[in-house]
Design goal:
The complex is a heterotrimer of chains A (243), B (234) and C (275). Chain A is α/β, with parallel strands linked by helices and 243 residues long. Chain A is built from 8 helices and 9 strands. With 234 residues, chain B is mainly alpha-helical. Chain B has one domain: MetI-like (MetI-like fold), CATH 1.10.3720.10. The chains are: A alpha/beta (243), B mainly alpha (234), C alpha/beta (275). Chain B: Keywords: Membrane, Transmembrane, Transmembrane helix, Transport.
Chain lengths: 243, 234, 275
């Protein structure tokens, strides 16, 4: 899978005063931020802070109630290719292999190339042994790896991961984190949410800290963890905010 | 009740005798109902899926309409199809009235709403689960239809069986449009009505037991296939 | 394994397709048949099973019988959905000719109606001399009477008999069922009611329970069957040639003999009387 990935432009995504209101409740409140550069971004905050929502808005699964989400074009003049890995992987009711060839079919990969490519991805994620097993009976860790393999095949320029490890055991968490690093090494921009401080410290280059639907801090990881600017962030880092 | 005592003997004797007339009736029943369900599926599965996926003004009305049509009395369906296929009706020139084809048409009318309404419900549930992933993959609604139908296949087997049950059990519609012609359009249910009219209740009930057994066998086969696959695929 | 699956799928598809196709070919199997709208009494007695094979052997024409009430049979013929008509409502048949739906009506055969009731005969109609008297006695006793109430030939004949007996049949005791002859007999058996039936259906009927023939033989109970040759002008698409052969065969010597030969449980039920 050592294909060439286009370097993404410096300013792929800009959010301008984005709000999201559901049934009269403001779940995200006037968020403005720019995601740029190449580092891995972690969206942090306690439960209900709006992390998942923010990612869904960025990925285009939801439309903001107010404000704009603007993607800069990539070199081809299109918004960058994106993929998303969910907290609970959504896999189709077919074999692991078929889940991958299916995704390749959607993005227009010629029929003959699909299986070899899918096998490569399975191999890459250590899943060849379960290629013919139905995806839905795999363990949680295997399912999440399969979801990552699927994302891998789509060669995204930006990969969103919504708490991808929150339901996994330590070994599976390690595998997912390795995969994230792997994606990043291949040039994929990572945007991942987590409420796990240690995980964030391991992975983050950049941190977006949300609380109560508001953007509290957006800073390089080193700064965020060593000298948080706000009392809330400090409390979060010290484990004083219930998540 | 003596009729029911004799009925089981009669049913057994009927089956054991392999009476060619009975076999013809059984085969025609299965043929008409299978064909009707097949045609209804070709229309209703995509239609039900489309209703689950698209939001448009008046969608609610259509959903309610299909739900209501699930309870369409067979005689009404039969009468409607009769008026359509009658020589004096708009489709009269095809000369389909009192043929098995007319019975298929009537059963399609009965089965279509059931399969459409239940498919919509199943696909809606499945799509609720799949929506974000499929959107993330950039799939258009049209392309989601085959994916969702295939992934809902085990639930849809039950839906199709419900349709088959309705088709094979109804008598009002096929009686009117088929005419219960001996050797041509006589099926299990119309034969039962005829034997009841003749007062041969044991034979009527015997035929009923044969019909019930057939439907049970079809359902059992589908259940075994479905359950095995479901267990395997999770 | 995947090959097996594919094979199974193809087999199932093939079977399904085969069924659909065979259904299509069945419909146009052989155009040498006519559709005959007739009454339940003739069908349920087994008369057609006995005489149609003889006609078919003679002419190579098959007859598809749609057995319904006389009212519905007229309607089917009026709409052009049957090639031929054999019913038992002489007045209605003559009107049908007068209205231009049929060009000719011929007497074919008779059977008769019988008055049936619970064997203990609470209204005592076994003693009656005429059917008028029997009907009056039933009304007098307000004994339950099951009427078909379906505008069939039998129903029309029954209503004429009430009229001739000078009785307006209504009240708790008079039950209009809106059913065919067989279901009406089933109901009458269930509620020990009097009922008028054609003899053919009665003889073929098995679920008699407590019922018996209590009155028979009055000429007013004479039940004439007629064959109608439908109008070619009105419905040019019908198989008039074949229908005419049937119509003529019924009143021919062969046809009349076939009707006379038909017996059920050792009884002759229909008496040919073509003129």
């Amino acid at each position: 899978m050592n294909d060439m990935r286009l370097p993404i432009s410096l300013l792929p995504l800009e959010l301008n005063e984005v709000s999201f209101v559901h049934r009269g409740q403001t779940l995200l409140d006037r968020i403005s931020l720019r995601l740029e550069g190449h580092g891995k971004i972690l969206i942090m905050g306690p439960n209900g802070a709006g992390k998942s929502l923010l990612m869904r808005l960025c990925h285009g699964l939801l439309k903001p109630t107010n404000g704009q989400v603007h993607w800069a074009s990539n070199a081809n003049g299109k918004p960058p290719r994106q993929a998303m890995v969910f907290q609970r992987p959504v896999l189709l009711r077919r074999s692991a292999l078929a889940n991958l060839t299916y995704a390749l079919g959607i993005n227009g990969t010629p029929w003959k190339q699909r299986k070899p490519m899918a096998w490569q991805a399975l191999d890459h994620f250590g899943l060849t042994a379960i290629a013919h097993r139905p995806a839905r009976v795999l363990s949680g860790g295997e399912q999440q790896r399969l979801a990552l393999a699927r994302a891998w095949l789509l060669k995204p320029e930006v990969l969103f991961l919504d708490e991808p490890t929150s339901a996994l055991d330590p070994a599976a968490i390690k595998a997912v984190e390795d995969a994230v690093v792997d994606f990043h090494r291949q040039g994929t921009r990572i945007v991942m949410s987590s409420h796990d401080l240690n995980q964030a410290k391991r992975l983050a280059d950049e941190v977006i800290f949300l609380y109560g639907g508001r953007l509290i801090e957006h800073s390089p990881a080193e700064d965020f963890f060593s000298q948080p600017q706000t009392a809330r962030a400090r409390a979060f880092i010290n484990g004083e905010l219930v998540w | 009740m003596p009729a029911s005592d004799n009925a089981f003997h009669t049913a057994l004797a009927l089956v054991l005798s392999m009476d060619p007339a009975l076999i013809d009736i059984v085969l025609l029943s299965l043929q008409v109902s299978f064909t009707a369900v097949l045609i209804a599926c070709l229309l209703a599965l995509p239609l039900g899926a489309a209703l689950a996926l698209w939001a448009f003004p008046g969608r609610g009305v259509i959903v309610v309409l299909f739900n209501a049509l699930m309870g369409l009395p067979p005689v009404v369906a039969g009468l409607t199809v009769y008026l359509l296929l009658s020589r004096a009706g708009p489709l009269g020139e095809f000369g389909l009235l009192f043929t098995p084809s007319a019975m298929v048409v009537a059963q399609v009318v009965l089965v279509l709403p059931i399969i459409t309404a239940l498919t919509r419900q199943q696909i809606e549930e499945l799509h609720h689960e799949y929506r974000e992933q499929l959107t993330s993959l950039g799939m258009s609604k049209l392309r989601r239809i085959p994916t969702l139908l295939w992934d809902a296949r085990f639930g849809l087997i039950t839906v199709i069986l419900a349709g088959f049950g309705r088709a094979s059990a109804e008598v009002g519609a096929v009686m009117i449009v088929g005419g219960n012609i001996d050797g041509v359009t006589r099926v299990m249910t119309t034969a039962i009505v005829l034997e009841t009219a003749k007062g041969d209740l044991p034979l009527a009930l015997g035929l009923g037991i044969v019909l019930l057994t057939l439907v049970a066998v079809v359902n059992g086969a589908a259940y075994v296939v479905g359950e095995t696959a479901r267990r395997r695929l999770g | 394994m995947p090959l097996n699956k594919t094979k199974t799928a193809i087999t199932i598809l093939g079977l399904g397709l085969g069924m659909v196709l065979s259904l299509g070919s069945q419909a146009q199997d052989d155009e040498r048949y006519i559709t005959l709208a007739s009454t339940t009494s003739t069908e349920q007695s087994g008369l057609f099973d006995a005489i149609i094979p003889k006609f078919r052997d003679n002419t190579g024409i098959d007859v598809h019988v749609v057995a319904v009430g006389t009212g519905q049979a007229f309607e089917i013929a009026r709409r052009g959905d049957a090639d031929s008509l054999l019913v038992h409502d002489t007045a209605g048949e003559e009107q049908f000719v007068a209205d231009g739906y049929a060009t000719e009506r011929r007497d074919v055969m008779v059977n008769d109606f019988v008055i049936i009731g619970p064997s203990d005969d609470p209204a005592g109609i076994g003693e009656a001399e005429t059917v008028d008297e029997a009907f009056s006695m039933i009304a007098e006793a307000e004994a339950p009477f099951a009427s078909r109430g379906d505008d069939s030939g039998t129903n029309r004949a029954e209503l004429r008999l009430w009229e001739s007996a000078g009785v307006e049949p209504n009240g708790e005791w008079y039950r209009e069922l809106g059913s065919g002859m067989g279901p009406t007999l089933n109901t009458a058996a269930g509620m020990d009611a009097y009922v008028m039936s054609d003899r053919a259906t009665w003889v073929a009927f098995d679920n008699r329970q407590n019922l018996d023939i209590l009155f028979e033989g009055d000429e007013a109970l004479f039940n004439q069957y007629g064959s109608l040759l439908l109008s070619e002008e009105r419905h040019p698409h019908l198989k008039h040639d074949l229908a005419q052969q049937w119509h003529e065969w019924l009143v021919s010597e062969d046809g009349q003999q076939a009707i006379a030969d038909f017996e059920l449980k050792g009884q002759q039920l229909f008496f040919p009387n073509a003129k």
